[in-house]
Structures are given as C-alpha cells and as structure tokens.
User: Fold these one by one.
Assistant:
Number 1:
Amino acid sequence: MGHPIKRDHARFKKVIKGKVRENLQKYVAKGEIPVSKQAGTYKIPMPSIETPHFKFGDLQKGGVGQGEGDPEDAIDGGEGEKSPGQGEAGDMEGQKTLEVELSLEELAAILGEKLELPKIEPKGKKTLESMSQKYTGISHVGPDGLRHFKRSYREALKRQVALGAYNEASPSIIPIRSDFRYRASQVKHEYENSAVVIYMMDVSGSMGDEQKEIVRTESFWINLWLKSQYKDIDIRYIIHDATAKEVDEETFFRTRESGGTLISSALKLCKQIIDENYNPEEWNIYPFHFSDGDNWSTDDTKLCLNILENDIIPKSNVFCYGQVESRYGSGQFYKDLVSKYGAVNEDIILSKIKNKEAILDSIKEFLGKGK
C-alpha cells in the first residue's frame, strides 16, 4: 500500500487521461496543439472542476424548509432565477482552466489507444548506437559516493565471524578498508532505429489558411506518434507551387503563394534529400504530401508517378498522400494515384481530409498499418 496522497495523485492522473481520450476528437478538431513545456512534456488546458461545498446561512432565518416563501425564491434571500443573457456585468472570476502536464509517452499512448494504432515495425538496419550505464555490479574499489553500505557491513561481519572476533552478546561491526564494496556500472551498447519524416505541402493560392491549419494539426499528432516509436527522428519540410524549396517549420505553415502547381517539383526535391542524407538501409523514411489535388498538367502527373514508382516508394516505409478538401481544388491527383495504385496498397496510403473533424480518421489511415 502506497501513501494516500500518491494513490490519489495516480487516480487523478488516470481520470485526466480518460478525459483527454474521451475529448480527443473535439480537441483535435479545434486545431489546438498541446504546449511543449520542456523536452518530452506537454501542457493541455482542461476546465477545472469546482468542488461542491455547503454555504452557511443566517441563523436568524430558521432552518431548511422553514418560513414563508414562494417557488423559485433564492435560498439565500437574493433575487430569483434569471433567464440566460439577463443581468448586469459582474467583476467575479470566470471559469478557470486547469493545465495538465502529460509526457510525450502518455500523450502518444492516449492517441494510440483512441485510434487503436499498432506499434511500428521498423525496417532496415539498426544503426544508431547508444550506451546506457546501469549499476548492476559490485566492485572492491570506487568512490565513496558509490559505496554499498549493506555489502560493506556484510563483508565486515563475515570477516569478524571468520576470525572469531564477533561477540553475539555485544555485537559491534566495524568495517575496514578491505571490507568496503562499491556499486559498479556496466555499459550496455544498444542499437536504435532512426526515422525521418519529410513533409511536402502545396502552398499555391488554392491552399488557404484553413487547409494549412488542418495540415499543421495533423502533422503535430503524426510527429508525436512517430517520436514515441523511434529513438531518433529528423523532420524536413518542403513547400511548393510551380517550384519547390526546403524551409523551416514556421515558414512551412505560414507561406502562401499564388502561382501554379507542379507537384513533381516537390517529389524531385524529396528524392534529392533522401539520396543525399538518408540511406534507406539505415533510415525509416516517411514522406507525407498534402495538397488539394490540383496539378498543372497530365504530363507532370505522369512524371510524379514515375518518381514515386522508381525512387521514393522503394526507399520509404510508406508514402502518404493527404488530400485536403478545398473549394478551389479539383482533387484530380488523388484520382490519379488511385488509378495507378488502387484504393488499398501496402506501399502508398491515400487519405481524403474533408475538414478538421476528419483529422483523427486520416491519422488512423496513415499510421494504422504499423509500417
């Protein structure tokens, strides 16, 4: 049995996680992203719960149910109930918000449970070497800070018993230098899988702020899940209209152009980034492309399919295309990919994202195969 406070805290954390899981759909649909407090920890705003309490009345007015009065009269002698929207402005506090801290692992676990996501099975070689030190051994030498007192006194007792110096009637155990024992570390070499996520997004005029907000929200939760599955992860960003360029995260979600769209420009740059930086034998590669489906010409679409078929898909764990619905987009590229690869394929995952309410379903489509 643990301390009551610790039990209550654990119970509270369980309740909070349950509430986050229940409301994840609404939370994601609002486009809210948990605030990163520090590495691996996120703050999630939640309405606080007002603890019920009794209010003492005036002793001169009698007890409950006594005295004159009419239905709907206020118990404390104030004015009766008012309809919504009536009354004067007040100076009292509004509803408070409780900020709950969850680790990356806890938040990813909630997402995984909600969407029933399988653990990812990495491909390729395990190339990142990491070393961990665990104090699992005992040594005759070491710093005083690592002295193992129990082992040291046990050695002293064994020595005194062997020499006949131990007195049961008046036990006194005094270790000497040769009795001292120290905790010793053992270095364990481990090899971890690494991954790279390459986001590509059409930033032409037909991709408005709402479409970019959908991509921003979805990419956050995709990153969260992948970070929980891999020890090391790189994230690269590509924007394109008729031309493509690599940018940082902030530029990725803020840039808006008005030119035409050549999807092949993004796929060419994606291929270049992979070829120059990420050996598919050593990295798990995840290219994501988001667009409203417009492309400049059928010739460019043929070029896109050729790059995907011969260069990107063979080197990737899976290629993911998310088509964000836009009143200005034709959605043709989705149809072209279905025509080439079919609606269901192990190497390429297609998802239609109608609005913010569809984000979680899209994430499940992308990550649900555990690749």
Note: The chain has three domains: 4-47+97-115, 128-190, 193-367.
Number 2:
Amino acid sequence: MQRFFQEEFNGILVTDFWAAYDAIARGERQFCLVHLLRELEKVNLRNKSEEWQAFSKKTKRLIKDALRLRAREDFTPDRYTSRIHKIDERLLDLALASYIDKDAKRLAKRLDKRRDELFVFLDYPNVPSDNNHAEREIRSAVLMRKVIYGNRSDNGALTQSVLMTVFRTLKRRGYNPIQTLFSALRTSSQTGKLPPFPPVITSNG
C-alpha cells in the first residue's frame, strides 16, 4: 500500500477493516459500517450466548440510529450536535464495558480502537458511511478474476492490474479508454515519449 500510494492523500479515506490500509491512513478516516454490520450478523449465526446477543443487538441499534440521523432531510452536524454527542457516548459505553464472551471482547476492542473513525460521516455530510462506491468500482476486476480463474504469473497479475486501473481511470475521467490508449501509443511511436495522463473532462455548461 505504501508503494502504491506515493503521494499523501488529503481527503477522508473510507475503507473496510483491512489492516493494510493503516499504512497509508494519516488523516481522518471513515470505516465501512456495512462491513461491521455484516460481521455482527455472521457471528450471530454461530454464537448464541446471551452476552454476545446483547452486545450485537446494542451495536446494531447504535449503528442504525446513526444512519437514521444522517438520513434526516434537515440533517446538519451543527443542528444535531447533541444527538451526535449522545451517539458517541453510547459507542464509548459499548467499547469500554467488560465482557467474558470472546467475540464480544474482540469486537469491543475494535470499537474502542476505531471509535473516532466510525461516525465521521456525521461530522462531514459529504462522506459516506460505507465503501460501497469503491467496491462497485472494482466489480469488473472481480468478475474478470472469477471468469479467468486468476492469473498464471505475477507479471500477468501486475499487467492486468495496471491496465484495468488505467482503463477505469480514463473512463471515470470521461474518455474512451481504447481510443485514448491508441492515441497515446501513436504519440509514443512518433516522439518516443508517452503523453501525460489526460485530466478530468469538465463541462463549461
């Protein structure tokens, strides 16, 4: 991750709980609440202990209350400062309580460690509470991996990752990837140099 992100990211990073992101997260961060809810549901299927079930229920209720607050049409952080503060207090109570159940202990430890990064979306209305957008962006790569059953070499995997990154970035910036690449290769054959990566297309209207 450090090798890939060679420039500092100045925005708010929205990620799942994959530990590798810790290497590049330097500013504020929002963890994906959908992933957290999924994990609670997954543990619910195998852990029927009273303590775990109570912990899971309280955690899910807290997350859903935060999401409902953010979904209000009149929501602004300033207008609902006291409600946000109460949500933070509930999170702190959940994280610092004593537990015997191993799953409750593990998840409470995570809540404590990440408590400043779970409800950032309440402080910044333009920040989502999940990383669904990022997962939709890589969906085509995931589907291709399933179709071709992965790559047969490290070089092949690297080539595919670079090409798919270039293609998707060009498309997101408003370009036809095939035409743009052909044009870049033509320029390279004539001048010996690849042209700079094209900027985002903006509308004057």
Note: The longest strand covers residues 13-15.
Number 3:
Amino acid sequence: MNKEFTIYTRWLALALRQQGFRIIRTEVNEFHPQFDTYVFENCEDLQIAISQLTKRKH
C-alpha cells in the first residue's frame, strides 16, 4: 500500500478532514492546473471512509 493517497475532489477532501483525517499537503493538479489535489496519509481507515462517503454521494 502506498504511503500517500491523492484526492482530486474538494468535497471528498473536506469530508475526510471533518472525519479527522489530516491533509499532508496540497499540490497543483497536473491535469487541471486551476485545481488543487489533496494528499492524505494512506491507511485502511482512510480507504473505508472514502468508500462510505462516495457511496453516500452517489
């Protein structure tokens, strides 16, 4: 498992922050420079939270 996980959507990054996950850093999105990406420490809890949040959204 990679040590870092990049999130490309702001709503998901903010929802993860509200659940207590810490953003390590932000970077400019290489494909869409007008947007940022959000880098989190990758762990099993993060992956579970991402799955739950995206299921609720869709």
Note: The radius of gyration is 11 Å.
